[in-house]
Amino acid sequence: MEREAFEKLSLEHIDAVYRMALQLAKHPEEASDLVQETYLKALRSAERFEERGGGIRSWLFTILHNTFYSRVKREARGPTAVEEFYEADERETAPHEAPPAWDLRSLDWEHVDDRLKKAIFELSEEHREVLLLWGVEGMKYREIADVTGVPIGTVMSRLHRARKTLADSLEEMTAELGWSDAADEVGRNS
Amino acid sequence: MPVNPSEGELLRMAADGELTPELQASMDGRDQQSDAPRVEFERELRRRVQNAMQDVAAPEGLRDAIRRAMVEDDAGTVATPLGDTTSPSFWAGVQRFAAVAAVLLVCASLIVVAALQTRPEHAIPTEQFTQITSFVTEQHQRACSTADDEDSRFIAREDQEIADLAEHKLDGLPPVLAFSISAMRDSGYRFVGMKGCGVPGNGASVHALFRPEDDTRKPVSLFVQQDTAELDLSKSACYFADCKVTGKRSIVVWRRDGFVYYLFSHDEAGLKTGQKAFGVPDAEKPL
Questions:
Q1: How many CB atoms lie within 10 A of CB B155?
Q2: Of B41, B69, B77, which is closest to A102 when you measure between CB atoms?
Q3: Which ipTM did the prediction report?
Q4: Does pLDDT of A181 surpass 70?
């Protein structure tokens, strides 16, 4: 693929790539750096994208994912840090409990946004990554597995665990703010 | 996929549209009255995550920095024909430097030419023009994808949802939105929904999408941004710009009631319909 054509096609997704990079790196400058490295790697291996077929967005996310975790491995201070990122979550199981039944739409947008952002920020990188690929980028489990390079069962476990964490955080918020309707519903369902 | 998922897994998979036919059969055999609000909770949670996290745009300058890096990298790649050696040779280095220097000289020439070709007849500086037109073009084209998940991003669909989103993002409901949705519907354009977005500038913004009922026509986007007086535009005129790809008029911009509006369509008929429905000023000037 010619550079100009590749540039046009790939830069359509720069906001999405930067968004994910920011969630992984947590710092805007590092995120920008990560995005630049991702795009250069993508350009250099553009012929592999053409052979593989499929969406360029998923492909860019895959490169971003690999680039981020390669950096983590390079910058790791010791084996413990590396294992924290590379230890697969096969032992992690998805939460068995059913989701809550209360009406999330009844909650104030601003409070929910702020609480969700905080809860998402506090997730581990692995959980945050699958949550955002699912929630913001609208990816299916199989696509997320392809991007992150983990089994689909692991994707599901991480995703369901992340969602349970968010739901718990929102339930805490309703209790803290004394929103009795949602809190009563929580009581009836617990 | 789990063969015997737990209740929690099953309900979340149902919310995500990930049930296999066998699991769907399991789901059908359950108490729907109990399951429905739980499935809806998960779907709403997904919408809230999207709403909370999607409003992040790449910083200004990052796109240009990547383009420059791609040009330099491409110039370096082109200079490899001396041989497939693992260690770079002196002459390969000289060729690469010469290639990069040539590219930079061309870029510098283009910048000089562009500077000489000023746009005195246009309303806003070139940099603002480029940022805004590129953004709305890309966002509209992305939204026009026929994939269902693209439409699902437009989370505010009902009147109250639109009002809530506008209050949240724009500190108020733009008057245009109050009457234009039914006007567009009467003209054969279905309102898909509205979502937050990041039009370049200091004002927060939203993006509303309309799809034509008639397949021969093309979608229309309306971006609404808080007016922070960054754009020096008259409130008694509208400003148009052509799409870089098609060369046709695709963008119309106007200011009113504390908001800046950007109307986009690849279809001139759609653009005209939008101008009428949204009450755009008649006087026209180039953006």
A1: 18
A2: B41
A3: 0.82
A4: no
